[in-house]
Design a protein that fits this description.
12 strands, 9 helices, about 15% strand, binds iron/sulfur cluster
């Protein structure tokens, strides 16, 4: 039977698809999928981050203003929200290349009581989570996204960026945003105010937060503080640290004394999600209501994607097998039809 160019390509594609399908089957057929995963990357021991406590947040948005000021970002009114919400609490409504930090509000029914799921409302702060094993770093082909080996902060280098937007697509939290207004098309996202930390200043959002709802510190210290909070009982009087939990950046500040008015969810968001994140959140309202992704695995996606790549490309056996298959098909075609 003549092997036309079309048939040749079809067979070659079928072979490639079979190889890809085998890899996909291995990945999706948990728990065998774990065989292809590489080990998760641990958080650096001195990783730093933020702890956001929704029950302490009063929605003042001082953190948003300070974030814009410290990062030289302009005021932003979403195009589809003009002019009705210009200057209102809701504007802007999403993270963008010019808004690295946003406070959003969940409401239900009459929204008459704070931190209540039914007929209540609650705030949530969104910014880069500084993942322990970040997808954005894994997919960036030119290492414009990097994770600091000491602090764990995920930084962005606009000079290295080629604007491919892989990081935008890969982030499970929808954080990096592409700036379509910039002729060079750069990415915008929170870098945990690395420029301020370099001057021994607190990240701006934690610096200005009046209640300690946004708290900076070593991730491990923040994790312990988060556990302390979720164990608190409604009606208990307690003092919440403000600024830097360790007091090493910006010094010790007087705490914020408050009565626990709502029972915390028994989970710390970011402790396990996607392999853990250096920014954590606690809340009295379920995290899915606050629009945080909750149906996510406890491993970072790079453990799978890099595991598969490294398995397929180990010793170049996979590509060599594909090449050998193609060469065999070409050879057979040439032998069967020497005149073509
Ligand atoms: S500054 Fe603090 S209290 Fe005010 S909105 Fe931001 S996190 Fe909430
Ligand atoms: S939240 Fe997104 S942008 Fe931030 S480190 Fe994780 S993957 Fe990267
Ligand atoms: S750490 Fe800095 S850049 Fe990140 S949200 Fe806070 S103020 Fe904005």
């Amino acid at each position: 039977m003549a092997l036309s160019r079309r048939n040749f390509l079809r067979k070659a594609a079928t072979g490639g698809a079979a190889a890809a399908a085998a890899a996909c089957t291995a990945v999706t057929a948990a728990p065998e999928a774990n065989a292809l995963q590489r080990p998760p990357k641990p958080m650096p021991p001195d990783a730093v981050g933020l702890l956001y406590d929704s029950t302490l947040c009063i929605g003042c948005k001082a953190c948003m203003t300070a974030c814009k000021e410290s990062n030289g970002l302009p005021k932003e009114i979403n195009a589809d929200a003009q002019p009705w919400n210009e200057g209102t609490w809701d504007s802007p409504v999403e993270l963008s290349a010019k808004t690295f930090n946003i406070i959003k509000c969940f409401t239900d029914g009459a929204a008459s009581e704070k931190d209540r799921e039914k007929d209540g409302f609650a705030f949530i702060k969104r910014q880069c989570m500084h993942c322990a094993d970040p997808s954005c770093v894994s997919v960036c082909p030119v290492s414009a996204m990097t994770k600091n080996a000491t602090t764990g902060i995920v930084n962005y280098n606009p000079d290295a960026c080629i604007g491919c937007r892989y990081c935008v697509l890969s982030c499970p939290f929808g954080v990096p945003k592409y700036d379509y207004d910039d002729p060079f098309g750069k990415i915008g996202k929170c870098e945990l105010c690395s420029h301020r930390l370099a001057e021994s200043k607190l990240p701006a959002c934690a610096d200005v937060c009046p209640t300690g709802a946004t708290l900076f510190g070593r991730s491990e210290d923040l994790r312990k503080e988060a556990h302390r909070r979720v164990a608190l009982k409604a009606g208990e009087r307690t003092e919440h640290p403000r600024g830097d939990i360790g007091g090493t950046v910006g010094g010790q500040r007087p705490g914020h004394e408050a009565t626990v008015h709502a029972v915390y969810q028994p989970h710390i968001y970011g402790e396990t999600e996607l392999g853990g994140t250096q920014c954590l959140a606690v809340s009295a309202v379920p995290f899915d209501k606050l629009n945080l992704p909750t149906n996510v695995p406890e491993y970072g996606y790079p453990t799978l994607s890099e595991g598969i790549q490294h398995t397929l490309y180990a010793g170049m056996v996979g590509p060599a097998a594909v090449f050998a298959g193609l060469a065999w098909l070409a050879h057979r075609n040439a032998k069967d039809h020497p005149e073509e």
